Amino acid sequence: MKRTEAQNLLLAGGLLVLLTFTAGCRTVSLKKFIPKFPTKSQPAQNTVAQTQTSNNQNHKPDTSQAQAQASVPQLTHDQVLLSQARAYISDGDLQSALVRFEQAIVENPKLVDAYIGAGHIYHGQGDYEVGEGKFEQATRHAPTSFQAHYYLGLMRQLLHKYRQAVKAYLYALAIDPEDFAANHNLSICYLQEGRAAEAAPYAMRAAKLDKDSQAAWANLGSSYNLMGLYEKAIRAYRQANELGDTTEPILLGLAEAHMRLEHFDRALIVLKQVVANFPSAVAHERMGYAYFKQREYDLAMKQFRAALLFDPDDTASLNGLGVCMMTRYISNGRQVQLHCEQALLAWRRSLEIAPNQPQINSLLQSFGQS
User: Which of 88, 146, 196, 255 has the most beta carbons within 10 angstroms of its beta carbon?
Assistant: First the structure.
């Protein structure tokens, strides 16, 4: 049964599938939180106190000096190694410090500070797996140590073990609920797991704990975007934008929220800024989509083609280009066969890259036989 022209036009007008939430899922880069070690620690020295006795045998020995020396606690060998490691850190000699931390662990396998100290150095060197092991050992020997649980979470986050990182951060926050970094990073891990509703409370708490943190407000905006709370997302992104230099994720997230609310004029204002300052396949594709929704098909195709120059395998741009071509073909009374062929070509290429697109596959079959 043949479709009417109106039916075909309506079908073409609804073809474009919104790009998976690229802007909303982006996260800010993490800073490496390496705590400062005491700068005044020096290797401990063991001294032997000497007492003086009177030449007069009838005079009792003066014990005051011996008593004072006895009152000073003597460092065990593992504590000496720990003190030396901290002194090396103060001098900037991290490798020697690491050797001392490892020696202290051998000397005393329950010495939590040695595990944490070594873990920090491995973290700074980018050896996240080794660092993870050190912090995990620290949590076993000191289950109430915030630092051990927090840095265990951070190592796992950097290793993209988000589900395990969530558990570690939750332990850390059970110890100190008001820590900004733990709340912020936990919300990021939840977002990476696609659990926006669970991310939002921690993102909000992080923003309250540090109202001047651009990253915290941007992360809150991402959470709201994924939850469909677009008005709140816009407010959060605007707050983030006021707190520092303009960034691509913030602008893309703001534009995405406007488009979800069908504020395409506002979205285009933001996207023009993105394309001017942070040109990318995503930026051009989003701009193409906004133009498409305004029925500016030529402008939309220009943006989709620009996106494909950045990434020839961007399926969203290929799909959008195909939709625009097919819309022109139908609206012009199917007179220009080239438009139909170009649309089908774009869709076929998209399916070669990502075969699991039922809607595009259905459109290809329908229009390919028309």
Answer: 255
